[in-house]
Structures are given as C-alpha cells and as structure tokens.
Design goal:
GO terms for molecular function: RNA binding. The protein is built from seven helices and no strands. It has 141 residues and is an all-alpha fold. It has a single domain, classed as Serine Threonine Protein Phosphatase 5, Tetratricopeptide repeat.
Length: 141
Amino acid sequence: MLSKYRNLEKDTPPLRHSQSNLCACALFCYKLWLLNLIWKFHGLLLMGYSRCAHSELSRLVYETLPVPNVFCFTYIINGYAQNGMGREGVSLLEAMVHKGLMPDEVTSLRVLSGCNHAGLAKEGKLVFNLMKIFYGSCPEL
C-alpha cells in the first residue's frame, strides 16, 4: 500500500506558484472577508434601527439583503416586538417560513413577545402550538 502512494507521489506534477494564482487566491480571500463584513454590517444596522424604534428603516435594510438569514428575520421581529407591532412580527414569521427558513427558539420567543405586547393572545397561542408541532422548537418559559 505504501509503495502505491510513493509511485503516485512521483507521478504527480509539482504545484506551481505563479503570480496569477496567488493574486486570484488573495482576491478570493478578500471577497470572502468583504462579504462577511457586509453581512455583519447589515446585521448591526438591522439591530440598531430595530432597537431605536425605526422599524421602517430596519425593514428597508432587510429588503436590500439578497438572501436574508434567520438572524436578519429575528432582528426585525425583535424590533417589531419591542415596539408593539405584533401583527407585523407574525407576518414576517410567515414570510420566513415561506422562504424555507426554519425559525429557532429565539425567533419564536420574539414573535410570542410581540404578540404579548400587542395583546394578540390568539395569535400567540397559535404561534406557540405551531412551533411545538411543526418546527420542534418550543421556547422555554
């Protein structure tokens, strides 16, 4: 077995490090870093606008995201919950599910909080039961 590996090693041409390969690799790493930075910046904007009761601005930032993730939805739902906009939080949860994203415990807790602040007892109970049955996530009370 070891002899086969040695023969394979001899037959494999050496890797060449050219300037174009190194530049392409560096550019790729930079783009990944920049994309990560953009996602963090969008998340901070969403969180900041939501906390400062600027729900329309956080929704505007959300609309510019090419592929929003669970965290983005949760930030906006949390902002809606803090500002007594429970119906908007429930509708955003529905949009999240329609996009194929699975809500987690934090998301469901934020929706329930929004329902509580807006006096939406029926909607809150429905969301709680749906989380338990369909998604297996039940916020700890």
